[in-house]
Structures are given as structure tokens and as C-alpha cells.
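**User:** My hope is that you can spare some time for a protein that puzzles me. I have put the entry right below:
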Amino acid sequence: MGDNAVTVADAVGAGIILLLALLAARIVGNVLNRFVARRTEDIARGTLKSTVRLTQYAIMVIGFMWALHSLGINLGALFAAGALFAVAIGFAMQNVISNFISGVILLLERTIKPGDVIEINGQIVQIREMGIRAAIARTLNEDDLIIPSSQLVQSTVRNFTLRDPLTRLRVSVGVTYSSDMALVRRTLQETAANLPWRVQERNPVIYMSAFGPSSVDFEVSVWVNRPFERQRRISDLHEAIWWALKDAGITIAFPQIDVHLDEQALAALRGTGQGASLGTGGS
């Protein structure tokens, strides 16, 4: 091989080194995974799993380089020649290489970890596994989603659990203009405060948000610490508001259109026989 003679013993030795590296990576992975299994926190477990995978990759890379060195291969020259080869195949494997590099970045930065709840492309998912090429996530519909690592790096991702699991739920409701606004606010405040699943340390927030065409709009905000359940909790909040307003005798507004006819138009309709039933006005 070049100026170096490679014997059968050298080849066998290199093969043994590769096998030992694979065995060492597996043993280290098993030992560390037992430690990870004893952790109860989802975020800590996900971080440790990413670290275990990076450790295994590092051991295998070191073993491969050691095996090449044992064959007398000049690694510096190999890297120089490999750079030209990498440029040639880089264009043909852009997506694969991009996903690989993105996966390494994610495992090192740990901005997205197994157990995190994220929103990407308008969809809320929970990360179950992090790999070098892709991540496996579970959707709210209990479907498994394979997300390329490059998409997680290059897209804007909303991470609900990056620093803490607290997330805010907002629900809007409109009441008629004839409603007692003080009673509406009091009813919404009591309803939100009595929710058993909200974070008790954060008080609900009630806003009169807008004067709509047919309603006075309020916004009700509560905090939860399980972002992946937000769809169900928003439904629970809607239902609680519905029954509370109904029990308080407050009408939830719906779109209405009032049509008023002037006297000339009404007289014209009467002249054709179509305005007899309209009276002096209509709605």
C-alpha cells in the first residue's frame, strides 16, 4: 500500500481493532444506558441518551482511525485525498450530509432533546428519539413522524419545554353588548381559577380584548405544565366557559346582520305588492 508493505497479520490486526472498537462502543453504550434508565426526568433522560450516542460514535471513529494507522496509512495524506473525493460525492449526497451535520449539531447543542414538545411547520409534536439523520416524533393524533435533522436546524422551531414546561393557553369568547360586563369578567375569572389541571402558582388572566361587530370579546389565559396536552386542555377550558356563562344567564354572541329599509325603498316594495309583510322596518 504505497511504500508500506501490508502483511496478513497487519490486516488481521486492523480487523481486530475495528471489532474491539465496535465491542467497546456497545459495552459503553449498555453501561451508560443502564444509568440513563434510572433517571426519572424525561428531559434529563433525553439529554443523557444523546450523550451516550455521541460517545459511541466517538469510540468507533477512534477505532477506525487506529486501524488505518496500524496498516501504515498516512492519515494526513488520506485526508488530503479524501477532501477531493468528498467534494465529488458532496453534490450527490447533499441532503444526507446536511442531515448528518445537522444531527451532530443538535446532539451537541441539545436545544432539542427527546421528551421536548415542539411546534414545527404548524404542527405540535413530542420528540421521542434523536438520531444523527432524523428525529422520531409523536403527533397529537398518535402518529409517528420522521423529521430530518436539517429541518430542525434550518427551520424556526417553537420549543415549549426548552427551559421549563410551562405554557400559556388562550381562549377567546364573545358576549352580547347587552351583557353585564362585570358579571362576565367575574364569571370567567372564577371559572378559570377553579380549573383543577392548571398551574396553581400562576393566576389566570382575563382581558376584554375587542369590541367586535356582534360581540364584546374576552380572552381567558391559564398556564399548564404539560404542553403536549394543550389541545385537550383548550377543549376543557372552552367547555368550562360554555357551562359557566350558561349558568350565569350570559349569552354567547353569534354573528348577526340588521337590515334597515328607508321609506322610499319600502314604498316601492309596497307598490309591487312585496312590502306588505315588511312593515316599517326589517331585520
Observations:
- The two ends are 95 Å apart (CA to CA).
- The CA atoms of residues 32 and 52 lie 7 Å apart.
